[in-house]
Protein 1
Amino acid sequence: MASLKALKLRIGSVKSTQKITKAMKMVAAAKLRRAQSNAESGRPYSQRLSDVVSSLAARVTVGPQSPKLIAGTGSDQRHLIVVAASDRGLAGAFNTNIVRAVRRAADDLIAQGKDVQFFIVGRKSRPVLQRFFPGRIAGQYDTSEMKNPAYTDAQAIAAEIMSRFEAGQFDVAHLAYSNFRSVLLQEPTVEQIIPVKPTAPAANDSGKVAAAAVEYEPDEEAILADLLPRNVAIQIYRALLENQAGFYGSQMTAMDNATRNAGDMINRLSIQYNRQRQAAITTELVEIISGAEAL
Amino acid sequence: MAELRFELVTPERQVLSTDVHMVVVPGSEGEFGVMAGHAPFMTTLRDGDLTVYRTAGAQPERIRVSGGFAEVGDRGLTVLAESAGE
């Protein structure tokens, strides 16, 4: 059985751990609010852009002259998975979930005999992927200096990916990130970003009717060629924002649990400590009394 | 005279969403003015200044935009720009 002193030390150490996790939880909560509003203010743009791209894509007939970003390279042998994870840990299963989704997708593709490579954004996903898929990591974008994802970061990542695409290093690109549904629920998602998936006809009919009478300047194809690379950057930007919000949400939940667990542990240890202290006092009393009686 | 619904959106945030009289947009093939009831129209933009007239005859406001496109529809004018600043 642990001595009184050891117990006291133990309680002290759990208490200071609790202080740390509590502080981290509060920091995460504050940052979450910020990240969430960032993610929300980024949505109108990406929403409009993807509306426009899909309505344009529906009007343009895909032929050999079409931009490669929509027509593809004519093969789907080589896949690139862009894995967006976080740079820091202590956020529960946040990174694990993303990596698991990526592994599942990659295993599927490999089982179909495809070539899979990874492009890493955020360093936490690297070690696991390296272990499971050695030699398949094609590149990395360092986000460790980045506090809040800026559009320029997304542009830089998109430029890197586009240049690899132009150089013919892959045929299909997927983007893996964690979709921020709520503080408690983040959904790891793997989406195809290159080539742009042929989208179903626009859901709202009014938009479609309006699109039919729209005049384009320059023509549809030129606008599309201009918008498609931008669309890639926007998708990456959105993924970074969703990730950021998801990360803080996940961290907040994890730290909240840790704080609560530490509280339980302190309670248990205090009870044990008090019992032992009481037992020691009783023993001492018994000794004194029996000593006095012996006289 | 009806007002034109004008929205200016960048990836980071919604910069403006307001009713205005007229906006002059730097399209890639020439500037064009948009007032309420403009025909549906879509174009890419060149880098330049948006000129916003909040009311007829008002002092124009200039907003620098770069990299984007404009869409005129029944919901008004939407400018999606990669960056926008005064």
Note: The helical segments of chain A are 4-59, 68-71, 94-111, 126-132, 151-166, 205-212, 220-294.
Protein 2
Amino acid sequence: MRHGDGGAGGRLLSAKMRTYGFIVSFLLVPLILYVVFVISPYAQAFYISLTNWRGISANPQYIGFENFGRLLDDDVFWAAVRHHGLLLLAMPLITIAIALFFSFLLNVGGGSKGGAMRGVRGSGFYRVVYFFPQVLAVAVVGVLFQAIYRPDGTGVLNGLLSTVGLGPVGWLITPDLALWSIMGVVVWQSVGFYVVLFSAGMSAIPKDVFEAAALDGAGRFRLFFGITLPLIWDTIQVGWVYLGIAAFDCFALVQVLSVDRGGPDNATTVLPLEIWRTAFTFSKFGYASAMGVALFFLTITFAALSLRVTRRERIEF
Amino acid sequence: MSNSAGTPREITRRQMLRRIGLTALVAGPAASFLSACATGGGSSAASPTAAASGGATSAANPFGVKADAALEVVIFKGGLGDSYATDVHEPLYKKEFPKATVKHVATQQIAQTLQPRFASGDVPDFIANSGSDLMDNGALQSEGQLLDLTPLFDAPSIDDPSKKVRDTLIPGTVESGLIADKPYILNYVFTGYGLWYNSKLFQEKGWTAPKTFDEFKTLCDTIKKAGITPYAYAGKNASYYQYWMILITAAKAGGNQVLIDIDNLADGAWNNDAVKQSAAAWAEIGKFMDKSYEGLIHTEVQTRQNQDKIALYPSGAWLENEQKSNTPASFEYAVTPTPSLTSADKLPFEAIRAVAGEPYIIPAKGKNTAGALEYARIMLSKEGAKGFIEKSGSLTVVIGSADGLNLAPGLKSTADAQKAAGANIVTYSSFENWYKELETELRKQTNSLMFGRISAEEFCANMQKKADAVKADSSITKQNRTV
């Protein structure tokens, strides 16, 4: 049945169907892929979290909310949640602050020349250099920082410190320092991306706004806080949500860099790592799924909250 | 109809796109079949009695292997390599069954590779379930996924058909693979554990391996003065090397029952005096380590030992083979048993931890279980075992399989230590496989103890707390051992 458009009456209908069928069939492809590969695993994880599935049998046993009750007294789980809290507070703040500073210098920091605002000398070059870390796969970054953070004198950082006479620092073996060291890697890797993002936001601001302010005698400091920041607030907000969601991950870096995967003494563990360990080492897929569900709600809550809290009136220009 | 009669029409771009769209409509549901449900799909699993498809049994073919049945062997490619399988065991199998194809899979991530295959029912026939990402044998057994190896151990030996396979193995081998009183695991490698050192360096400096912890501390002082780190292990990924030493010392002081109680989650097993004294003694040795070793991995520490920057290193007998490419001519491995705590120790200084290790398993739902059993019988023949020793540099559980071989110094030292120990063997620890959560906690607490963040009392209390939690956790299947 190649062309089912039969009589004159059906012609109009079939033309409509053809149009909509065309649109619908295209929308269906991504939708089906999304349902199959995103929604359905989520739904399965919710179901598995209510079972005691150990990853092997075909028929997991339903145990209600027992896994979630267990989470409440799990010290390691709460340690991981606390670390996400710290990452959530500090990592976006540090990354965005550094990225804003750099992108301001790259776009506006050079002052006004010939009637247009410009970046510092060589800003095109810096823009590319800042983006380098973003290009590296996270596993490569992990291996790279193993050498940088190595705790004895053969580590890059400790080698540098020893040239100025400072003793080796246990970047990843000091419980109070380890998570910050890992956070440093995340910041190092993500800054470049946000420099580019914020640069795009800044270049969208009409130059005459800056010029007018500059003519009125505003310094760089005033330009930044009075004009740049409010006008790219939307972009910053998006960056904040991205970074916040990234703060709920950090699996690969913690797995590669930390002592004993999440140590020392649980000092660096994060939820994805615990989920992985609970599922694949302890063979407790049900309990691991419960952690996954908890992580899902943490992430959703964060995204919803931060979008609401940071909402501002949009400035049209 | 009118528009399609006669001349073939050119397909317009729009029609083309529409057809692609329709194809996607069809492909969509197919994709959902592919992804299936993670937990579903069990219904189509192969029948557990796959061996029934085999050929007739005979004296030479006790399991009735079908001559042309394919065999899939999955080998953990770690410290032992996998050439023992590709160059020795698989060719031996091929020689016996020339018509069979042998598929060899080498991986370092057993669980990630095989867990989905177990869930879907498409399992390989023979697995070296080793490495840091091995599968939980207890969980596999409780799901009926493992084949009972009793027929293997009761089958006639290839070298001497009048003997059963179990009688050609070092005592304790079959027992080490028991789950719920049945042998499901073939532990093939015979491994001695102890403190490793460079015998040439010790000779040159006039140092002797310590027999007691007092001597150990004195020696550490001497070594430290010579500008060498006396003792170290890798905290980043190999803290279990250190907890073995703590457990060995505890077993030497209090007898093997200490370790059996720990495995059985007996009340107060970790608060036993022997464990406390051992932890305290090792924490003293820990003070001679550099803090930075907590952040290094085993190969980094082992290489530093090869450079004579570290004197003594705790490990098992695979060490020499693992470090082969890094060991200079001035370095000759030798092993010494862990020192005694006091003269009241239940086991003598010569006692070593020597266990049958490297678990090999046969999935019950494999397509060629008979072939897998025969493959295991070939491994347990003298020829198979000798080939393994030559390729992997490790001893096997087959009695006399090292005889007549020209062994490397470290391996010879292990064989000597094993001979000196005689019947004084420190037993294996089953909790490492039975209760992964307890094992993970022990790694953590061992680092805390050895790098001076907690005391021996806290170490014991923390471990006891975790053991009690595991015992109280109804979702964990409890196991028991008497020997």
Note: The beta strands of chain A are 112-113, 116-117.
